[in-house]
Specification:
Blueprint lengths: L1 H23 L5 H7 L3 H30 L4 H23 L3 H19 L2
Length: about 120
């Protein structure tokens, strides 16, 4: 169960690294615009904002990786904290931007958190 929890935490981290790449480096490209449903004009105007959001997603990913590799009890505490942050961000994003965020961001974190808590 512990190995599954670690894999799920790292999967959530990987999702956030991918979001970082989309927001920081691919925002203005066709791939980035398609992922977020934007047009070129909006992408050009909002690129600094998107890069900032990408940086925050990178911090979430870093925290999740830290939690996955840290010794106990710190690792458990860090995993719970950062998965909670991802869940809150995902729910907020789903309510304010696009419901798809609930599936892409919050649901994987909810599943990972449930498994992490079951390892205790």
């Amino acid at each position: 169960m512990t190995a599954l929890a670690t894999v799920l935490v790292l999967a959530v981290a990987a999702i956030h690294v991918y979001i970082l790449i989309l927001e920081m480096f691919l925002w203005r490209t066709e791939r980035g615009r398609r992922a977020f449903g934007t047009d070129q004009e909006f992408a050009d105007r909002s690129a600094p904002l998107a890069a900032n959001q990408g940086l925050y997603n990178g911090f979430l990913a870093a925290g999740l990786v830290w939690g996955a590799i840290a010794a106990e009890p710190v690792g458990f505490q860090v995993r719970v904290f950062f998965l909670g942050c991802v869940i809150v961000a995902g729910v907020y994003g789903a309510l304010t931007v696009n419901r798809r965020i609930l599936v892409v961001q919050a649901a994987p974190a909810i599943i990972a958190l449930a498994v992490v808590l079951l390892t205790r």
